[in-house]
Specification:
Elements lengths: L2 H10 L4 H17 L5 E5 L5 H8 L3 E6 L2 H9 L5 E3 L12 E7 L8 H11 E12 L7 H6 L7 H10 L2 E9 L4 H14 L12 H20 L7 E8 L2
Parallel strand pairs: 1-2, 1-4, 2-3, 4-5
Antiparallel strand pairs: 5-7, 6-7
């Protein structure tokens, strides 16, 4: 991750609609599918806002992060059990874990199956992995390259990586469908110009931010009824295969 993107995360993750909505989505998935207590390990902690939230839910939290700047920031914010570590190497966890959270992490990894295998190795018998990844490979472009993405996923490629690591999805859906048309337009303009608009999240006014959070809430209620058929991201809950 570009250090400038980390600074943006630190500034936005508490109020920007994307971060708030993703945190709400993950919280609902934890409530529906995960053990309600125990150790939670987040890989890729960014600015630490999600890890602090998971701690507020009652989990004992551990963070693993490749960026030393992020680790220093999170420790300064009172998150003591955070460590600089490459997720593609065996994880330094000495107890069974209830939950592993990987939010927009796998797309950065050279070997995403190895990351999932390392998660599998630390999970307890009832443990789950909750993850999000960017979706729709046809949208891969300069913006992904700026952010250090190696890939975008489909349902089938995410299932394949999960299966190769010994998991099967118990929940799998696209999400962030309501901004899909705008994203397509932006990607077309990027490709015509040959460069990304920037690595920053698009700034929106306060009223628009509220509207987008509301649309994300409606989408989550629809997701309660059936998986969303298309969106800019995928979310999943994984358990060990039979």
């Amino acid at each position: 991750m570009d250090p400038r993107h980390l600074e943006e995360l630190k500034a936005l993750e508490e109020h920007y609609w994307w971060h708030v909505s993703k945190r709400a989505l993950v919280t609902e998935l934890l409530e529906a599918y995960a053990p309600r207590e125990g150790r939670l390990v987040e890989g890729g902690i960014g600015g630490g806002g999600n890890l602090r939230h998971f701690e507020s839910l009652g989990y004992r939290v551990t963070g693993l992060e490749v960026m030393p700047e992020a680790v220093r920031h999170c420790r300064a914010q009172g998150l003591s059990d955070v460590h600089e570590h490459d997720l593609e190497k065996p994880w330094p966890i000495d107890e069974s874990v209830s939950v592993v959270v990987l939010l927009d992490v796998l797309e950065h990894a050279d070997h995403p199956v190895t990351v999932l295998e390392n998660a599998n190795a630390v999970l307890g018998p009832e443990g789950v992995v909750v993850l999000t990844v960017p979706a729709v490979p046809a949208l891969y472009g300069p913006w992904d390259e700026v952010l250090g993405h190696r890939r975008r996923y489909t349902r089938s490629t995410l299932r394949a990586d999960a299966s190769a690591a010994g998991f099967e999805p118990v929940f799998l859906s696209y999400w962030n469908s309501f901004t899909f048309p705008a994203a397509v337009g932006i990607r077309v303009l990027e490709r015509r110009s040959g460069r990304a608009r920037s690595s920053e999240f698009p700034r929106v006014s306060r009223p628009v931010n509220v509207v987008l959070k509301g649309m994300a809430t409606v989408e989550r209620r629809l997701m309660d009824l059936a998986p969303i058929p298309m969106g800019l991201s995928l979310c999943a809950v994984l358990r060990r295969g039979a």
